[in-house]
Amino acid sequence: MRVRVASAGTGKTASLVLRYLQLVDGGRPLRRIAGVTFTRAAADELRQRVGAGLEEVLASGTYLGGAFQPAAGAEAFRQARRELGGAVLSTIHGFMTRTLRLSAPLLGLDPDFAVLGEWEAAAMFEEEARGLALLAADASHPRHAAWAELGPGAGPLLLALFGKRSLAETLTAGPDRRDRALVTLFEDAYGRYQARLGAAMVAPGEVERRALRALDVSQARARLAERFPVVLVDEFQDVNPVQGAFFERLEAAGVQVEVVGDPKQSIYGFRNADVRVFRRALSAAEASGEVQPPLTDTRRHARHVAGFLNRLTDGLAANALGFGPGEAPAVATAGSQAGVAGAVELHWVVGEARIAELRRGEAAVLAGALAEHHALGVAFDDMAVLARSYSGLGTAEAALRAAGIPCVMLQGRGYYERSEIRDLVHALRVGVRPEGVSLAACLRGPLGGLGLAEIDAVLAAERPLAELEARHPEVAERLAALQRIARLPPLEALKRLVRDPLVAGKRYVEFLDDRQRQNVDALLFDVAARAPRDLQVLIERLELLSRQAEAGDVPQSGDGVRLLTVHRAKGLEFALAAVFDAGRMPFQRAEPLYLDAADGRPHVAGSEGYERARRQALAREEQESYRLLYVAASRARDVLLVTGSVKAGQPQGWAAALARLGLGPRDSGPGTVGDVGAAGAGGAAGARSPGGADAAGALPDAGETPDAGDALAAGELAQAGIRLVTHPLQTVAVPAGARPAAAAKGLVAAPWLERRFRAHRYPPVFSPSRLKAGTSPEPRAPSDPDDWEDLPGRATAVGTLVHYAIGQDWPPGERATRVNLAAQEVMFPFAPEEREDVLDEVIELLGRYTALLGGALPALSARERDLAELPVAVPHGGTVWQGVIDRLYRAGGSWVVEDYKTDQRVRSRPYAFQLALYAHAVERALGERPAARLVFLRSGEVVELGATDLDEAFAAAMEGRAA
After folding, report:
1. Do 442 and 528 share a domain, yes or no?
2. Most buried among 150, 454, 456, 943, using CB within 10 Å?
């Protein structure tokens, strides 16, 4: 196998086109060459580029200005031009599908088989797994023991293993009982699933596995080798192990396989891509002498950007971070970019504040830097901000909009969970069967329009639909219309649901804003392109996609700075690329199942080999994170900006990697810079000369940075065209000139523009549990779900689980209670042995609570009304106080508010305001002041706070003083 390493911007596609021309010139017909790449867009581009190359040769007799001059006559290229339309230039799955169709009868397939979507395949497999669960519940069933071994988690484990089937051609069972049980159940469910597919349907994962096995059939193997004696594969670093095995066996069958890729850009591990496949091919090529010279001329990057990338790859490779030296050849600028100096800037925001506050300061610095380069001539449309996560992009977006910088989010997160999409899903479900959660959601949404009290009255009735017809006949009529719509074909049903005037003469889309309408239109287009067989399949598809974080909302249209994740940016380039939030630690969540690609063994959480498999997987994720940094940095053509937040002088994540290269934050005074020169906008607007003045002056500069250990000296930074700035948090501000002048063109300032709302003592929305005696009233920043700093600790997990179990009235002595607690999301970050310790503590505290019932606390059966986990929102003093009352019940003719505490010490004073607020809320709602109690579960003590204590605590909090 011929292998070539091609770094970002070095012309992989041009090299493939050149290879096509060489093969045609050597007498190989174009129809006998298969071009394979990773995406449909890349395959289409390759077809266009090959066509353009053929035209260039026929018109001028050369390609790429003399890089290729044919030895044969023009007839071979004219023939290739005629064959281009029917030539195979496709995705890997497209080529594998062609493989199966060539020999379909030999492989037990209908030649006209349909290829399902992966989402539909997963839904079908899940149905088979659920069917197996029903059968295995019978003690006499042969799979009963295996299902009992895994318990309630068997279904999710089977579905997780199904999603990893591209990691191994066959599964093998290890010595652990749980692992063996999973393999047994999977093989059974997978066999049922394959039988259901039959000969007429194939899913993407099965295309891979069947294509691989087709090469074991001699006639099919010979037919494929004869049809495509040469296969050229692009982006080989992104193939999964089953795909890699396919190309290896293809080469063993006599096919000339040539691959090109870049291990430094292997970032799709979450899609089962495995860089080890490329490395295995590279090692084999080195041994056989088939390694091709790497591509090292970059026509994308300006000189200083290319120099920075070389410094980055050399440093990472030397420390085996993400890739090795042989995978990171130095690049040199070529073409027009060789004459562009370009610029690299690194901005670090440092301080002792919470990381979320540092990031907001970092976003302000980013906004100022973008405004500065815009003033130097870089259009906002030519800029992009890249981040690891959408939460990081959200922080950047807020700062850019505050600075008046136009920006657009190219791909948001959670499209299938958006309210307008969920409204339609619930309406379809109600049309099929008007009951349950979907009925409540539909009644609450635009199609129902009922309030919470009205919905509660309907759902609490013995016959909800009859109650609805009696109370709200117009809404009942709409539900009847939904049932009629549900009998139509899926696409027609969806269109009628969106476009029919179902609500007082108004259509559903009339209740939506422009953004929501775009999402609904996109859903209609998507369903029209892949219309399912029946409505239930459509509903299941939308439910499945709603659980997939990768499904993003419709890209926004508009002008301005592009905001996108690094994964979304791969394959793109921008005049200015800014890498935001470089100080973020990668979030690594332990999975309930790992599959070892080397031996095909699955490892279930709690099994013998699980910990080793988990450590290996986390190590691979860490390595991939460094490759992600390279991909992000290599998107820049002329200007590269990197910003990061550093707390307490300890760089994390990519910031730590850059600090090892001497490019980390400096510890001098405010606005410390490494070099104020060589930081302009490259060839786009003229670069600043090294050592020249900072023309815009938008970012604070305070002199040269002294050499700090391994840090690069100012002279080295200037020579490399790198500007390094350290911003102490308190000095960060968006420059006054950041707002583009165009934003105010022709507009007159409104008279209220400079008015400000009076600052209240507390934020507009605040939690009473955040305000304890002796603590600062400063609000905690909103939680970032991707932020490693916000992972729950053990105490938080224990408290959360105890409160939840009490709210559910789960008995501590039943096994189901422990199983249900173990399945809660708060447990996922913990290792198996840690989970068991947490569960032991939770069960113990739950037992102490149960022991109080009927004694210090009224028995559940003695309560006249009992409400658990009751949400509360109380407007008072300019703040809406939001919280949750652990328990509100009426016993002996009186109302009681209870709050459960898992503290080690019995202390009532810190919680007096919280209880006072809850009592105040209950009194306002019910007209009766409740008793207020703290239940300390560790000691079993119940402390009741008197009215005087509560009133004093409430007044003290409102006045901002200690109670």
Report:
1. yes
2. 150
Q: What percent of the chain has pLDDT over 90?
A: 57
- Measured in whole angstroms, the distance separating CA 372 from the mean position of its chain's CA atoms is 31
Structural domain of 421: 415-546
| pTM strictly above 0.70 | no
- Of the three residues 824, 852, 880, the one that is the final residue of a domain is 852
CATH of the domain at 16: 3.40.50.300
Tell which of 174, 196, 218 closes a domain.
196
Task: Determine which helix (DSSP H) or strand (DSSP E) holds 425, and give its type and residue range.
Answer: helix 419-432
Rounded Cα distance between 332 and 377, Å, is 26
Q: 426 and 407, same structural domain?
A: no
Contact 339, 665 (CB under 8 A): no
190 and 220 co-located in one domain: no
Check: CB of residue 274 under 8 Å from CB of residue 18.
no
| Whether residue 837 is found in the same domain as residue 891 | no
Distances (CA, A) of 386 to 376, 512, 682, 884: 21, 30, 20, 37
Cβ proximity of 835 and 822 under 8 Å: yes
Domain count, the chain: 6
Helices (runs of H) and strands (runs of E) counted in the chain = 32, 25
- Judge if 11 and 72 occupy the same domain: yes
Burial 454-474 (b: 16+ CB within 10 A, else e): bbebbeeeeebeebbbeebee
Evaluated on CA atoms 147, 148, 150, 155, the torsion sign reads positive
**CB distance 679 to 686 below 8 Å:** no
Other CB atoms within 10 A of residue 111 CB: 12
Alpha-carbon dihedral 72, 74, 76, 80, rounded to 10 degrees: 140
- 865 assigned to some structural domain: yes
Verify that 848 and 878 share a domain, yes or no: no
Least confident of 30-34, 508-512, 517-521, 577-581: 517-521
Phi-psi region of 729 (alpha: psi -120 to 50; beta: other; left: phi over 0): alpha
Return the structure tokens found at 913.
């305001």
CA 508 and chain centroid, separation: 30
d(CA 771, CA 831): 32
pLDDT beyond 70 at 696: no
Select the more confidently predicted residue: 872 or 577: 577
339 domain-assigned: yes
- Per residue in 183-242, pLDDT tens? 999 999 999 999 999 999 999 999 999 999 999 999 999 999 999 999 999 999 999 999
